[in-house]
Amino acid sequence: MSKSLNDTIHRVTQRVIENSRASRASYLELTDRESERQVNRDTLSCSNLAHAFAGAEEDQQAIKAARGPNLGIVTSYNDMLSAHQPYHRYPERMKIWAREVGATAQVAGATPAMCDGVTQGQDGMELSLFSRDVIALSTVVALSHAMYDGVALLGICDKIVPGLLMGALRYGHLPAIFVPSGPMPSGIPNKEKQRVRQLYAEGKVGRDELLESESASYHSPGTCTFYGTANSNQMMMEMMGLHVPGAAFVQPGAKLRQELTRTATHRLVEMGKDRDYRPLAHVIDEKAIINAAIGLLATGGSTNHAIHIPAMARAAGIAFDWSDLTELSSAVPLVARVYPNGSGDVNHFHEAGGMGYVIGTLLDEGLAHRDILTVWDGGFEAYSKEPGIDGDALVWRDPGPSGDTEMLRPASDPFQPDGGMRLVEGNLGRACFKSSAVERERWTIEAPCRVFEDQPSVNEAFKRGELDKDVVVVVRFQGPRANGMPELHKLTPALGVLQDRGYRVALVTDGRMSGASGKVPAAIHCTPEALGGGPLAKLRDGDIVRVCAQSGTLSTTADLSTREPAAEPTPDMGMGRELFAMFRNFADGAERGASAMLASGSL
């Protein structure tokens, strides 16, 4: 017998509903109006319609005669990004599967899809976060032709899934479904990869050895197998009911993966108007957003989603902030440890029970909303099952008990009683701290700070031995308005080495860390950011800084009120960064989603 909904989750949900009342009503009014005035292909001019099906080849006559629903495919395919390489053949197959149920499908458009793994520590990383807004805008452009009765969204990785969802929500009167492609097979053990990275940071191995190690880890099509932002995206799509149940972590090329994609195509047709109508605007509501946050906390997911969840929520007219996230964290236990929070990767997680197990144990303990509208006709409880093939049929089964209690535990006996993220705040602002990745004895760090204004300067100081001491490393002017809020993942090996040497080390920054943030305590996404006079701009070398996840503290003993902020750096040019000036100039704070598009005043 499942328990009733947890009181804290109920309280936070009601607060989010109340805080969102006006904005949510405005959003739903917009989507209802769009639904009523939606252009029907029968009402398009002959010239409009002829343009729209001219390239449809064998589907031309069906679209011309309006014989059935027409699906729009928005793809983020490229073959540089390993997770998206399998999407190459998806559209042609989905067109065949649409015909099986009397429908047609067209590629409505494509979005950019950059890889943070390629741009880590490079100038291109300053485009990364704002690529989410570009992807959202690209999705809107793709769907602007008014030809579609449903939307298939092909995307997996970091900014791509949030961007696709934010854009698709502008067409919230249409049903939509996300179609993943799955993780690559496991490579070398994660501890070995981490060991070689730290040896390279210390200068004990060379570039050839490092490249060999990295190539053995990232080695084939599919999502990178650590539990970073991309795989946290897939978890959230399950928690919000936007996948065919259990689709997240089935590997590319498997028969099961193909059947899940075929089923997604068929299901999208079934969700059309005059059928089992499930518009995206009603699938993504306050409870769905709360479920996404619960999944993030329960599995120790990517810190990037402390930015993406508020942004996705806001695109649906929902107000959600870090106070909501940290209060949920007090009630949601950590039930999964996946690398970098544990030793096994997402393939091991899936084999141990995966999302079916996680959702089942959360529902059993009253720790997730059961009554959300999903894309699946079995409701959210269907997501507590795992998919499989029986003969030629796609079936769902109970995943049973955890297949590895070092990776997955029931919510009644978790790894820790609270979730994976905490809000820290004080006279240095508000920031996020991923407690699930850090040993408890390192939850509190108090030490003199060293202040830097870019990532390379930290690594240079490390190589000179200047950081061989207890230290809080502050990296400022890394916020959305300063330089696009890049990930600072290149700091992880050096800070990890310092910690392993016995020093008490922490990071404080208004930038982001990777979804693969690891064992070093870090207060990240600090808001207000340094640019514009935020508190970090007033810190000086040697100021005592305290970061404490236990008490939720981010503070300094220095009197900042008497100081002028440091001079603001001039934004760098090149790599197209100058073209993103409008995004930087109009971006709002990290807690509101760090979006220029959402800050425009229209949402």
Q: How would you concisely characterize the structure shown here?
A:
The chain has 22 helices and 14 strands. By secondary structure, the protein is an alpha/beta fold. The protein has an eight-stranded mixed β-sheet with strand order 7-8-12-11-10-9-13-14. It has a four-stranded parallel β-sheet with strand order 2-1-3-4, sandwiched between helices.
What does this structure look like?
This protein is of the alpha/beta class and 603 residues long. It folds into 2 domains: 7-37 and 68-185 and 220-397, no CATH class; 422-569, IlvD/EDD C-terminal domain-like (Glucose Oxidase, domain 1, 3-Layer(bba) Sandwich), CATH 3.50.30.80. Helices cover 36% and strands 12% of the residues. It has 22 helices and 14 strands. It has an 8-stranded mixed beta sheet with strand order 7-8-12-11-10-9-13-14. It has a 4-stranded parallel beta sheet with strand order 2-1-3-4, with helices on both faces. Strands 5-6 form a two-stranded antiparallel sheet. β13 (544-548) and β14 (553-556) form a beta hairpin. The longest helix has 16 residues, at 21-36. It is globular and about 75 Å long. The two termini are 41 Å apart. The model has no long low-confidence stretch (mean pLDDT 93).
